[in-house]
Amino acid sequence: MTIGVKKVSLQRSMRDQIFLPAILEGLLTSARHFFKNTMTKGMGDVDTIRYGEPDVDPKTYYPARYRGVHRLMHREDGSVRCVACMCCSTVCPAKCIHIVAEDRRDDAEKAPASFVIDELKCVVCGLCVEACPCDAIRMDSAQHMTPTEERAEAVLGKIELMSRGSRSVAVQGGHGADYRATEPAADPRFPTAR
Amino acid sequence: MTSSDPPAPSRPRSATIIMQPEPPPPPAAARAATATTVKLPDNKPAPAPAAPNLPATPEPGGATVKLVIDGESLEVRKGTNVLEAAKLLGKDICHFCYHPGLSIAASCRQCLVEIEKNPKLQPSCQQIVAEGMVVHTESPAVLESRRALLEFTLKNHPIDCPICDKAGECTLQRHYMNHDHQLTRVDVPKIRKPKHKDIGREIVLDAERCILCSRCIRFCEEIPGTGELGMTFRGDHEILDVAPGHPLDNAYSMNVVDICPVGALTAKDFRFAIRAWELRSTPSTCTGCATGCAIEIHHKHEEAFRLVPRHDPDVNGHWMCDEGRHTYKTTDPAKRVRYARVDGEEVSLGHAIATAARRLRARGKKVAAVFSGTATYEANAALADLAGLLGAERFVVGRAAGKTDALLRDADKNPNIRGAITAAGNARHEGELALELAGRAYDAVLFVDGTFELSEVVRKTVESITSVVLADRVTPLVEACTIVLPTTSWAETLGTMINRQGRLRVLQPAWRAEADRREPADLIREVALAMGERDLGSSRDRTRAIAELHDHAELRRLTADPVAARPTLLRFSHSRG
After folding, report:
1. Does the interface predicted TM-score (ipTM) exceed 0.85?
2. Residues B451, B475: contact at Cβ < 8 Å?
3. Which end of chain A has the smaller Cβ count within 10 Å, N or C?
4. Chain A: residues touching B (Cβ < 8 Å)
């Protein structure tokens, strides 16, 4: 089988080939917008958000489900809610979450020894929040990732992520993670201590 | 090296379960003397570990039974159970307490099936097949009983999958997803039980997660015969426990982690190390002792996290020892030899090979070639070829003898001593090597791996003469030798070993070796080429020759098609629990 080749002539006119008229048209458009948005009353049709200025609060400006920088929530005792189940790092399409687990040596058993998110790799999809079974990771900080001078500064660790966090008493699966606290004391005949 | 008769362990009730090993091998020196008589492999009948439950595949010439399962008629071995028979049709009847290597308890009632002319549902694990039996495994009554029993099993289960090490390879999770998949209707508090109790050297018990299947209890009674575990209390309050002062510390205790269908028994060694779904699994062979148990290496990237036994009816049945499970630590990335060294300086691999060839080849040198019981057959055979070219004196070395028992552990801790002796031909014992090195009898010595105990005098000799070692990790010998060539570890090599039964055992690469690491036989070939000698053939060629010699289909497939050696993802692989 042979491959058919279709020849297309570019058909550029002289006007296209010298480019100058197109450049002038572009300059004219820019100039029109410049005068319209600076000289006219009411500043034309521009709706500039003065992000970062004191009178603009991004928390009220952004919609409630805006996905900002990650944060890690706290338990009532101030420790991290995360139990290092690795669901977020597994589901993460950018593979930007790195967790190392450790033994907490209490009833919660498992906690992250380190929890690192590379915000430069993050694609802000929010799947980590969806996957989290413990309401530990959230993206409702309503903050952009601020530009950094060094790449390493955009790699956030557990302390930094927890500093944005707050207390969460969310319960899961009906009775919640702390269902043990609400139930009657154990029968003394059965050993419950470790 | 070994006591002539290992002490017999206390026998369980059913003595057929204990596999009977051969009499222990003679000491290495005696074997070395008769090395030329060792055939490769002699294929003597292996001690078959009799599993209590007969597989359903009919034996040639054996009695068979015809039955119908879900409308499909099939012929199975007489005496097998319905659950095994259904496996032949690819039907995995869901079950918790049944294990093919253990006796039958029929206590979980999860495997109930409908049998025509029988008024009640029957546990398929306990029901022996009968002529003309008609079984329904997916009738409405069966499905309803499965769903209801799962709901009942989950009544007191804490559902703490986020912190459970078993999550991702959990039988309860799998069955819930396949057969139940409904919200809980339980509105009363769950029964609290000990949450993490240290019950032995290797094991942590979470009694809340336990579904009381008693697999671990039967294992301890029937396989090691120690019987540490037992049930206490009744009903909702029934818990698995050990007697005070009698922890679970037998030599096979970590098998209970594999057979536990939930995360009630977890290994301290693996606790919180990694999630099961992140691991990949490569079939291989344990290098801890001469038994050569079939294992799976569970690894992520270039790091192994645990070893679990793979079913091999001829060698290890379903089990392996705790000692063998810890051998994954010999692949520790922190202790790897990554680059070649000459006189203590890191150099390129080509330079090191050229230097080794030049120094070994110098005229009139007396060379000792040291074979090792921990290196593969390919490496030892390549060294034998090189030793022939150099006219070198041959020695076989290995690890020191260790603990043994009548089950799986062998006193000989070298996985391939038979292969090394066979490859070396007329070799001498390591004691003679130490004596002659101390007496400075050689100008050069070539070690095929880093396994050799150094005394102070021998270390000084090794440091002063031309000593070449092919090493995958740093050992005292590697630190003493003047030329170090980096090799792949046992987890990165495609190679073969010969176990105590004379069986061919296959090592598969779990990951690609990084940096300058090469297979030892390939390095020896390079050294020979640098000497200007003939091509000895690559490691892959040697493996292929062995595969052809023994008509080993699996090994032939591995050498022909490297894709076959790729790891498979572990997720719900049905290999555990």
Report:
1. no
2. yes
3. N
4. 83-87, 90, 101-103, 107-110, 133-134, 173-175, 179-180, 182-184, 186-187, 190-194
B337-493+513-537: which CATH architecture?
3-Layer(aba) Sandwich (3.40)
Query: In this structure, which CATH number among 3.30.70.20, 3.30.930.10, 2.60.120.620, 1.10.10.60 belongs to the domain B158-169+182-267?
Result: 3.30.70.20
Query: Does A85 map to a domain?
Result: yes
Residue of higher predicted confidence among A30 and A57: A30
Domain CATH code at residue A159: 3.30.70.3270
- Nearest residue to B373 (alpha-carbon basis) of B446, B293, B430, B316: B430
A194 and B194: CB-CB below 8 Å?
Answer: yes
Q: How far is B193 from chain A (nearest CA, A)?
A: 5
A-to-B residue pairs, Cβ atoms closer than 8 angstroms? 59
pLDDT digits (tens, 9 = 90+) for B354-367: 999 999 988 778 99
What is the per-residue DSSP string for B504-544?
Answer: EEEE--SS---TT-B-HHHHHHHHHHHTT------HHHHHH
What class does CATH assign to B64-152? alpha beta
Q: What is the pLDDT of residue A139?
A: 93
Residue A4 resides in a domain: no
pLDDT at B72: 94
Mean pLDDT (whole number) for B501-509: 93
Assess if residue A49 is contained within a domain.
no
Q: What are B143-188's pLDDT values in tens digits?
A: 999 999 999 999 899 888 999 999 888 899 889 988 888 887 877 7
Asked whether the beta carbons of residue A109 and residue B195 sit closer than 8 angstroms, the reply is yes
Contact A86 B275 (CB under 8 A): yes
Q: E strands along chain A, which residues? A: 71-72, 97-103, 110-118, 137-138, 155-156
Residue in A190, A192, A194 to test binding to B, most B beta-carbons within 10 Å: A190
- Model's pTM, two decimal places? 0.82
Q: Do A183 and B184 touch (CB under 8 A)?
A: no
Q: What does the CA dihedral B327, B331, B335, B338 come to, rounded to 10 degrees?
A: 150
- Give B492 to chain A, closest Cα distance, Å: 26
**Tens digits of residue pLDDT in A36-47:** 888 887 777 666
- C-alpha to C-alpha distances, B394 to A144, B397, B450, nearest whole angstrom: 70, 10, 16
User: What total number of domains does chain A contain?
Assistant: 1
Q: B192 and A87: CB-CB below 8 Å? A: no
